[in-house]
Amino acid sequence: MATRELQVVDATPAACCVPLAREGMSVEEASATASLFKALGDPHRVRVVNLLAVSGEPVCICDLTELLALSQPTVSFHMKKLVDAGLLEREQRGVWAYYSLRHDVVERLEKVLSLEGVTS
After folding, report:
1. β-bridge partners, 93
2. Which fold has domain 13-113?
3. Could you give the C-alpha distances from 72 to 19, 66, 67, 90, 110, in angstroms and in order?
4. Which residues of the chain have pLDDT under 70?
């Protein structure tokens, strides 16, 4: 019996984004990009990304609740939105979850937001 290898494809909005200045953006690509922006469309989630960007290491959700002055269920809700969008990685350490930015996604976002080559 032959064995098959299962390939995992990242289908999160962050993985599907294309540069905004790219010609011929498809409806699917525009939808994925809009989903990513929707995940960042809340000030608390933007602050989470900021806090993780400057921390340099994974941050415990218990620290985020204090820094954001929000309840743990509310912070968990926001974190799920960011993880589902593909922006964050989640690591379970005992009872606590630690979050960090996905650096491959940050690099992709730089390209998505680049408007190089656009003429006025």
Report:
1. 96
2. Arc Repressor Mutant, subunit A (1.10.10)
3. 35, 9, 11, 15, 31
4. 1-16, 116-120
Q: What is the DSSP string of 22-87?
A: -TT--HHHHHHHHHHHHHT-SHHHHHHHHHHHHHSS-EEHHHHHHHHT--HHHHHHHHHHHHHTTS
- Residue 62, token pair as written in the block: 């218990």
Phi and psi, residue 115, nearest 5°? -115, 25
**CB neighbour class for 111 (10 Å; exposed up to 12, middle 13-18, buried from 19):** middle
Domain spans in the chain, listed from the N-terminal domain onward = 13-113
Pairing of strands 96-101, 88-93: antiparallel
Angle, helices 103-113/27-39, rounded to nearest 10 degrees: 120
Six-digit token string for 11 = 């289908």
> Quick one: how far is CA 74 from the chain centroid?
17
The pLDDT tens digits for 58-90 are: 999 999 999 999 999 999 999 999 999 889 999
